[in-house]
Hints:
Number of helices: 10
Transmembrane segments: 7-25, 45-64
Low-confidence stretches: none
Keywords: Membrane, Transmembrane, Transmembrane helix
Structural class: alpha/beta
Order of helices and strands: HHEEHEEEHEHEHHHEHH
Number of domains: 3
Mean pLDDT: 82
Strand content: 5-15%
Helix content: 40-55%
Oligomer: single chain
Bound molecules: zinc ion
Shape: elongated
Amino acid sequence: MIHNNSIYSYLLLILCSILNIYPSVCYNETSTPINKDSTVRKWNIILWDFLVSMLLGIIISTLVNHYQFKLIKSTIQCSTEVILNTYSKYNEKKNVRKIMKDLTNFIPLKSFKTYHIDSDTSMETIDILIDQAKQTQRFSFITYDDKVSEKKFFIIELIQPSTSIIVIIDRFQEANVLCNKTDNLLLVIFNESNCVQTWRDIFHGLFGFQIYDIFLYERIDRKTLVNMQDHFKEWYNKNFSHNENCGQLLNFIDIDGPLCSCSHRPCKFPEDKWSLSMAIMYAFHENFELSHDHIQQCLAITKLSHVIENEWTREQIQCFNEHRK
Ligand SMILES: [Zn+2]
């Protein structure tokens, strides 16, 4: 590229010279000796034009080369940064995998008892659960909706002071008495004075469960559903602030940002969301990544919500993690 531009500059120089010389030479052929002085003057002008054109050519060539060099230099720098970033991200991922192998498995905060509501469940069992739900104000809730297998269910934890109650509710294929009874249980759970904790905004996902009247007629107050994913981010950033030498902190912004170099802050953009497994891993140092157990997911929301609700500090959760070892 540099070489080509130099050639263009010199071609310009030669072209200018020819344009200057040609008319002068033509003129000289028809001139008489009387006009010798003016001929010398013409040759002086040609020589001067030649020098100016050459100088102009050199300046243009130097400028073009200079900017081309800067462009190439910045392109190389960008490419190097991209390669280094990719390499460090790969290493980071590798380290996370290595560390995760050393982590203990997820342990729920408290013991629990499980109930499964399907077409074989007795009315008495649902009555017991309705009574329990009436005495509970806080619940954790996850939905499962597999489009391929068309398997749909949700899991609700009735968070109790001692032993929690986990209820797995299959989606009924058709409305019947048992389905209506389950609807009554859901009405108690989704009462507007209660808090139903989720991990992400699941409101629209509930339309897949419209066999229950409560979801069909949108009888849920949206404020009842509390997205703990957002609350966790807020709690975590407040308690696990940036390191002193972190670029994001130097920029006077204590939120997740691309300048952050802290290993304890995996979110690098303000809009980044915490996955449930990452939240458990960073808060409790427990391996949750490979957990496909949906009950455990529900219990994980409860465990995280406990520290948020009780406004645990960094020291408190570190102390909790130390004592568990
Ligand atoms: Zn940071």
